[in-house]
Amino acid sequence: MAIKQGLNAPDAIIRTDVAQYAAAHSTPPDATQEALVEATVRLTGGAAAMQIGGDQAVFMEVLTRSIGAKHAIEIGTFTGYSAIAIARGVGADGRLICCDVSTEWTDIAKEHWVAAGVADRIDLRIAPALETLAAFDADTRFDLAFIDADKPAYGAYLEALYPLLAPGALVLVDNTLWSGWVLDDSATDANTVALRAFNDAVANDDRFTVVVLTIGDGVTILEKR
């Protein structure tokens, strides 16, 4: 999910000109990704703001490939941009399980997964993610996970994922800087409070090595020890 919007939002995490320069010197979206962005922008109600940025997608693809991840899971798929990145990263012999509750949004995703040539490596499961996680066999192991769904449930998702993570597995968690709102004590909405609590909890969780990146709206990487 991209940036939290607000009339009085704190300053951008990265200066606009620096962000634009970085984007201009990174691998750009291909035609399929551009078409998916355009299809997502057409959604009503400002939903398009939930899509990750192109630079984050490239980062996720490269990271997935570089750690040799072959078994990945995504909690919160939306219209499928991040899934394309991860699916490309796991390669033709890898698999990505996508968890979401919206057929409206994931129907857009499925169309573009076909166009991107990755549909055969994605297993979409329409159900509450905690139910999907609870249904896995005890010996299931993932090399990489991406969490980008309802913020108050972030802690619950991580706890449900933990026993399913291989040693050294990475968990990427989106929106953890929340446009800087996590620094503003006057922000007391449910999402900001939940993200602030999640950040505090994982920073002190000795099960993981943790780093918070300022890419996108803040991406936390947790490595299972």
The number of helical segments is: 8
Count the domains.
1
Physical arrangement of strands within the biggest beta sheet:
3-2-1-4-5-7-6
Q: Got a strand count?
A: 7
CATH class: Alpha Beta
Largest sheet: 7 strands, mixed
Helix content: 25-40%
What's the quaternary structure here? single chain
What's the architecture in CATH terms?
Answer: 3-Layer(aba) Sandwich
**Overall 3D geometry?**
globular
Report the average pLDDT across residues.
94
The radius of gyration is: 17 Å
Structural class call reads: alpha/beta
| Succession of helices and strands | HHHEHEHEHEHEHEE
Q: What is the name of the CATH superfamily?
A: Vaccinia Virus protein VP39
Uncertain ranges? 2-9
CATH topology (level 3) name = Rossmann fold
Q: How much of the polypeptide forms β-strand, as a percent range?
A: 15-25%
Brief summary:
With 225 residues, this protein is of the alpha/beta class. Helix content is 38%, strand content 20%. It has one domain: Rossmann fold (3-Layer(aba) Sandwich), CATH 3.40.50.
Secondary-structure map:
Layout lengths: L15 H9 L6 H11 L12 H13 L4 E5 L5 H10 L4 E6 L2 H14 L5 E5 L2 H6 L7 E6 L6 H8 L3 E10 L15 H14 L4 E6 L5 E6 L1
Parallel strand pairs: 1-2, 1-4, 2-3, 4-5
Antiparallel strand pairs: 5-7, 6-7
Helix pairs in contact: 2-5, 3-4
What does the model show?
- There is one protein chain.
- By secondary structure, this protein is α/β, with parallel strands linked by helices.
- Helices cover 38% and strands 20% of the residues.
- The protein has a single domain (16-224), classed as Rossmann fold (3-Layer(aba) Sandwich), CATH 3.40.50.150.
- It has helices at 16-24, 31-41, 54-66, 81-90, 103-116, 129-134, 154-161, 190-203, and strands spanning 71-75, 95-100, 122-126, 142-147, 165-174, 208-213, 219-224.
- Strand 4 (142-147), helix 7 (154-161) and strand 5 form a beta-alpha-beta unit.
- The two termini are 27 Å apart.
